[in-house]
Design brief:
Blueprint lengths: L24 H13 L5 H12 L5 H8 L9 H11 L24 H13 L6 H11 L5 H8 L5 H15 L2 H7 L26 H8 L12 H6 L12 H8 L19 E6 L4 E3 L6 H12 L9 H21 L1 H12 L22 E6 L2 E8 L7 E3 H6 L13 E3 L5 E3 L2 E9 L2 E10 L7 E3 L1 H7 L2 E3 L4 E6 L2 E6 L2 H13 L8 E3 L7 H9 L3
Parallel strand pairs: 4-10, 5-9
Antiparallel strand pairs: 1-2, 3-4, 3-8, 4-14, 5-10, 6-7, 8-9, 11-12, 12-13
Length: 535
């Protein structure tokens, strides 16, 4: 650190939280600037004071880095902060995007006030959040059967302030004593038994699958068990609650400690239509007993399929469920065993080998890298390096732009890449693109790197292993198994050598080549690949 410039006398660095290199460096710089700007420093001393005082805000590894800076190596505070951020770039917080708002979802039974609070907390952490995206994410996160969701669907809002004003109006109504009184059970209500509830009385459930939706449409989750038709009862796969080793109340308590349980909303049927003498712990409402709750049985069945609750079943029930699961698996396997079985058997018997005469067309002797042309995102990408020494798949920024893709499609995530000599390059994001080879189309994740290079892309070990491929630089070939035999892609030595020469000369993207293909060739092999759904 240079000591050539004198500090003003009686200068004291303001107190602040010390930085040790484990948190975001940008946040520390912002805090340091704010504290220093509140200190009275003469203009001619401000730059020197900012630089020399910076070390007083550091501790641990960060302070060690600061003291190791060569003398006279810093000529301005801007250059100091640039080197500081570069040194501790790995500690930067991942920048959040507007898409993260779609992950904020109102839970069943969660008060609207809590959901609005969580959403606002997420929104303020996103810089320059687009208003239309925020409105769309807020509405999509609401329960689809809530009053606010219906209102926002009927009346479109153009500003987030308008949305929140409607939300706060709904919150005031939810927290009003009169509204809570409507939800409380009525002691003088009439009891109506054996009456089939209407469709509107059924609580909304998010669709899980086509078969589940059809089953849910034909049953109400708060009907007493004696109202279920005999054919439904006989074909039901819901476990008998009497076969559980714990009581229904204990079962609900166990569910409270399991993540992913779909809790139902309170029943919407009017109080006079529900039996207030019966209480359901799962619904936390009157209308039927816990042991008669159809929704609870359906949820227990789903949890059992996922491997939960097995320890609470009796030996007889556990054996019956295991047998049913085996029968279902066998039925599904028999349904699809035809072509898929033949394909899998062919894949397992594939032998990949290289014969001595396969290098006849190779320009020998050589030490060339394996450079191929590969179809990425429907474009024939030349000068693609196959490198089993790379732990990632890399697509360079110029090639990404050449594909005609929008930079907004990138997931902005900075990842440090370390070279052989320890130098670090930060990626600018990542993207998943289809890579087509030998009839197989795989979704492949690429890290986007913006730097001068002779290559368009580098296919590293993730893609090589995902394809089950075996590359050979000696034979200038990469081979990989497919459902219709072993396929191969030949290397292009001329491109490999020109890339090598370009790298030595430091000319970067001089040989940029990209051929756009309108579509992937449609073959019978491609049809089989779609059937197998190899990912």
């Amino acid at each position: 650190m240079p000591s050539l410039v004198e500090m003003p006398k009686k200068f004291i660095v303001p107190s602040m939280k010390m930085y040790d290199g484990t948190t975001d460096p940008d946040n520390h710089i912002a805090q340091y600037k704010q504290r220093m700007f509140t200190t009275a420093i003469a203009k001619e001393y401000r730059e020197a004071s900012m630089c020399k005082g910076f070390g007083s805000s550091l501790t641990g590894p960060a302070l060690q880095w600061f003291t190791n800076l060569p003398n006279a190596s810093i000529d301005s505070f801007a250059s100091l902060t640039d080197r500081f951020v570069e040194q501790f770039a790995s500690s930067r917080n991942i920048e959040r995007t507007a898409d993260d708002l779609y992950e904020v979802i109102q839970k069943r039974g969660e008060p609207l006030r809590d959901y609005v609070g969580r959403f606002n907390k997420e929104k303020v952490s996103i810089p320059a959040c687009v208003t239309s995206t925020a409105i769309s994410a807020f509405k999509r996160g609401l329960l689809p059967d809530s009053d606010l969701y219906k209102e926002l669907t009927k009346y479109q809002c153009r500003t987030m302030e308008d949305v929140l004003s409607r939300a706060w109006a709904q919150i005031r109504w939810e927290e009003d004593p009169a509204y809570r009184h409507l939800l409380s059970p009525r002691s003088d209500s009439r009891v109506v038994r054996n009456e089939r509830p209407s469709r509107d009385d059924r609580p909304y459930q998010r669709p899980r699958s086509e078969s589940t939706s059809k089953r849910s449409d034909s049953r109400s989750d708060h009907r007493p068990l004696n109202q279920i038709e005999s054919d439904q009862r006989s074909s039901s796969t819901w476990p008998d609650m009497s076969n559980l080793a714990i009581s229904p109340a204990e079962l609900v308590n166990v569910l409270n400690h399991i993540s992913g349980v779909r809790w139902p909303q309170k029943m919407k049927a009017p109080g006079e239509r529900r039996d207030t003498s019966k209480w359901c712990d799962f619904h936390s409402d009157h209308g039927h007993r816990t042991e008669d709750c159809i929704t609870l049985r359906m949820e227990v069945n789903e949890l059992l399929k996922k491997g939960h609750l097995r320890e609470y079943l009796s030996d007889r029930a556990r054996s019956r469920i295991d047998d049913r699961s085996n029968d279902e698996s066998t039925r599904i396997a028999r349904t699809h065993h035809g072509d898929v079985k033949a394909i899998c058997e062919r894949l397992s018997k594939c032998t990949i080998s290289f014969a001595s005469d396969e290098d006849k067309c190779v320009l020998a002797p050589h030490h060339d890298a394996l450079v191929i042309s590969l179809t990425i995102a429907n474009s024939l990408m030349k000068r693609t390096l196959v490198d089993n020494g790379s732990s990632t798949n890399i697509l360079f920024m110029d090639a990404y732009k050449g594909l005609g893709l929008d930079e907004n499609a990138l997931t902005r995530k900075s990842t440090p890449l370390v070279g052989f000599s320890g130098e670090v390059k930060q990626t600018i994001g990542e993207v998943t693109l289809p890579v087509y080879a030998g009839g197989i189309n795989r979704q492949t994740k690429f890290l986007i790197l913006d730097c001068a290079t002779a290559y368009n892309a580098i296919m590293g070990r993730p893609w090589i292993h995902d394809m089950g491929a075996v590359p050979s630089t000696l034979h200038q070939t990469i081979k990989f198994p497919t459902p219709w035999g072993v396929k191969e892609i030949k290397g292009e030595q001329e491109h490999a050598r020109s890339c090598y020469q370009t790298t030595l000369k430091g000319k970067g993207h001089e040989l940029y080549q990209l051929e756009i293909q309108s579509s992937i060739p449609h073959t019978k092999e491609a049809e089989v690949e779609q059937l197998c759904e190899i990912h």
